Q: What sequence folds into this?
């Protein structure tokens, strides 16, 4: 907290205007229908002011908070992932040349990067998920060019979480409620600006504690009206996230979970989960770190034009593991085992980190209410590894 300031609620609109004037497309939380989603933000009025959420296993509802908080909810229904890694995109287009049967011209599709992205209101868990994707998709030998093009030049205005849902467990994963100052993998700043919303019952005292995290963030902060913050303001901001961490009743023991899952391949627990799992793919589609895809080739009715699309896929799909002779994972048991073991164990072997950020979306959006925290704890209990008190309560 080397450079902290106070931003008024009216200054939030000025911040959005400043980012747009600098050529950024601002993406943040907004209400559509009965959910908070990530969409384009043109003004502060687009934000879900006064709206909170209630999340439990297999349950998501919006609620009126009765105050003017702009970020008084746990997390949007979908993370920032589709901003950089859309659910469907064209990879290339081909057309037949002059009606010749054996000659095509193929053009690779390139994403529109004329406007850089500014993420506004990104939660710590979702910011960590973006950093994980940076490693998986843009930092290895073969780079996802589409992802890298969209991600390049991103400006991040993170918002510390004050109101976790009942399904959240980011505190136990070390991914929130307050984002780390630097990216654990690269050491670079995690955010350009960090806001902590202070929303007391008196609306006249409603404000944001603004922390500058990068040189780009300093440039933007200097362009809008702020006032210097005091040490008490800094402590008040830290108290918000400390309280949010204590409100979380779910927890995963990251010291033991990877070994537990490695040793549980033949556990009878998988059969029990399979009786409830619908293999609907909901958990993977809302997960901010899942990155599995497939391709779909389509042509028009004339046969003169064709496209290849990349679309999200899921390890819960039977066809996902299909090779010659049939799918490798035919049962729901084997697919759930693959998913949770990858997230909480083998992902670490591949990428040097766990693949779960504790956002709790997979719990909220599972129609059967299957809880990744409880399943990890149950497997641990079967091995004689005692769950943490928070995990025991969650079960």
A:
């Amino acid at each position: 907290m080397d450079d902290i300031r106070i931003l008024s609620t009216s200054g939030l609109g000025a911040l959005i205007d400043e980012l747009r004037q600098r050529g950024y497309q601002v993406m943040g939380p907004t209400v559509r229908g009965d959910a908070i989603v990530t969409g384009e933000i043109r003004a502060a009025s687009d934000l879900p002011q006064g709206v909170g959420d209630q999340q439990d296993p297999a349950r998501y509802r919006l609620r009126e908070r009765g105050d003017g908080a702009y970020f008084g909810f746990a997390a949007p229904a979908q993370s920032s992932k589709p901003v950089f890694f859309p659910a469907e995109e064209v990879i290339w287009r081909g057309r037949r040349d002059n009606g010749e049967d054996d000659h095509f011209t193929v053009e690779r599709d390139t994403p529109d990067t004329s406007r850089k992205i500014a993420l506004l209101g990104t939660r710590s868990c979702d910011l960590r998920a973006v950093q994980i994707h940076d490693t998986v998709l843009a930092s290895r030998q073969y780079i996802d060019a589409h992802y890298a093009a969209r991600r390049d030049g991103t400006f991040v205005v993170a918002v510390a979480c004050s109101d976790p849902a009942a399904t959240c467990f980011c505190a136990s994963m070390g991914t929130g409620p307050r984002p780390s100052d630097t990216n654990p993998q690269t050491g670079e700043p995690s955010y350009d600006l960090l806001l902590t919303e202070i929303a007391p019952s008196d609306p006249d005292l409603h404000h944001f504690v603004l922390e500058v995290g990068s040189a780009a963030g300093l440039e933007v902060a200097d362009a809008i009206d702020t006032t210097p913050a005091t040490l008490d303001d800094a402590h008040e901001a830290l108290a918000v996230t400390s309280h949010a961490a204590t409100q979380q009743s779910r927890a995963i023991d990251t010291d033991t979970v990877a070994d537990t899952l490695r040793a549980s391949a033949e556990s009878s627990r998988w059969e029990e989960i399979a009786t409830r799992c619908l293999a609907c793919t909901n958990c993977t589609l809302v997960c901010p770190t899942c990155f599995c895809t497939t391709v779909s080739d389509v042509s028009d009715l004339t046969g003169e034009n064709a496209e290849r699309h990349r679309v999200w896929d899921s390890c819960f799909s039977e066809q996902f593991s299909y090779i010659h002779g049939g799918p490798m994972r035919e049962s729901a048991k084997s697919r759930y085992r693959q998913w949770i073991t990858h997230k909480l164990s083998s992902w670490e072997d591949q990428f040097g980190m766990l693949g779960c950020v504790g956002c709790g979306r997979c719990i909220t959006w599972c129609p059967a209410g299957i809880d990744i925290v409880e399943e990890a704890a149950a497997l641990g209990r079967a091995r004689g590894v005692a769950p943490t008190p928070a995990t025991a309560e969650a079960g």
